[in-house]
Amino acid sequence: MSRAVYAVMGTVLFGALVIMVAGFEALLLDRDPIDEPDAGTLLGPLMVAAAVLVVLLSLLRSAALSDARDDRAPEVRGTFPAQPAVFARPTAAGATRTGTGDEATGPRGPAPHLLVASIVTAALVYVLMLVVGGVVYGLVRQELVWVLLFAARYAVSPFVIGSAVCAGLVVAGTLAVSRVDPGHPQPRPSDS
Fold this sequence. Notes:
By secondary structure, this protein is mainly α. The chain has one domain. The chain is 59% helix and 3% strand. Strands 1-2 form a two-stranded antiparallel sheet. Strand 1 (96-98) and strand 2 (103-105) form a beta hairpin. The model is unreliable at 82-88 and 99-107 (pLDDT under 50).
């Protein structure tokens, strides 16, 4: 299965987990994820949509990097006018040219690290949820100061923190699962 499919499946899982976690937090803590009564109904979903976009882009980037490293990346050669087909992909250090001369095989560098990708994604989800929520709430209130006040108030919100933790766990799990190739007896290279 393609790593891009794993990325989409991981993103859908993340969206479902965020909705589930927010629901359980609201039920157990007896409070709404967004407490401001004048915030409207779109503030929470816009924050979640921004988080889902970050997770999708993170997983797709990691999938593309891993596919390129394993020489499994789909590519279209010679479509850019200034790029002839022979030089579609540069040869890496220690690689050899094969066949028609437009392919390079050999070492590509280390695989993307699970821990780094998951921590960066979790941090980006955390920050982006606060920024999107602050900007949207600032637009609703029509005062710039509410951007900072909203972000400061929700910096320790279980809704935002739970979303960031879910993002990190889903990215780490999806990247770990996507490295196992059931069609080959050996697992794909990992980041040891």
